[in-house]
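YlaI family protein: structure tokens wanted.
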Amino acid sequence: MRVKCALCEVIENIDDYSLQAKRLRNRPIHTYMCDPCHKRITEKTEERAATGNFKLYRSPKVEDDF
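Answer:
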């Protein structure tokens, strides 16, 4: 499957039967990012988190009693 990175617009091939390819086919809202862009964003996020001024808003975990 040919995919284009959402940030740098590099076209790459991924395996047609991979989980990532399935997600891209079945859920159009998902976008593809190449490995260099993904690593760059991860590093920048970790740097901002280390400053202490960065808050990552996540929904609270709900515990089921069942």
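Residues 35-51 form the longest helix (17 residues). DSSP finds two helices and two strands in the chain.

Cheers.
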